[in-house]
Design a protein that fits this description.
Blueprint lengths: L8 H19 L3 E9 L2 E9 L2 E11 L12 H17 L8 E10 L5 E7 L7
């Protein structure tokens, strides 16, 4: 399996999806704070602000539709991981405990040829309450 960041087609698809997600978020008025924030537990794709709310964004990109809808890939285990990553970010970046935050999911659907079908922004897609 090729894991070279410059030639791995899956990484290229993911990067393209993240770029499209950033454009969609900015078009909705979000301000991008960071991308690909890493810690020992994993990675947050995008960190943004939507007004006063800090938003952690998971991007799911799919091509061809044969794997099912992109949002269906955010199961309970992935939701727990995203919550843990958000908590790690809040602690590492010394965000006040009472700060408003949420986790959004952006789905990017492409056809088999890589032509964009749709970008959906699902706000508050992972509940923590």
């Amino acid at each position: 399996m090729n894991t070279n960041k410059t030639t791995d087609p899956r990484r290229g698809l993911g990067r393209a999806g993240e770029d499209l997600a950033v454009r969609a978020l900015e078009a909705r008025g979000y301000t991008i704070v960071g991308r690909n924030w890493r810690c020992p537990d994993g990675e947050l794709d995008i960190i943004a602000r939507d007004g006063a709310c800090l938003v952690f964004v998971e991007v799911r990109t799919r091509r061809g539709g044969w794997q099912g809808a992109a949002e269906d890939s955010i199961g309970p285990a992935k939701q727990r991981r995203l919550l843990a990553l958000a908590d790690a970010y809040l602690q590492a970046e010394h965000v006040p405990l009472d700060a408003a935050w949420r986790i959004d999911v952006v789905t990017v659907e492409m056809d088999r040829r890589g032509v964009l079908r749709e970008v959906l922004v699902l706000q508050d897609a992972v509940g923590w309450r």
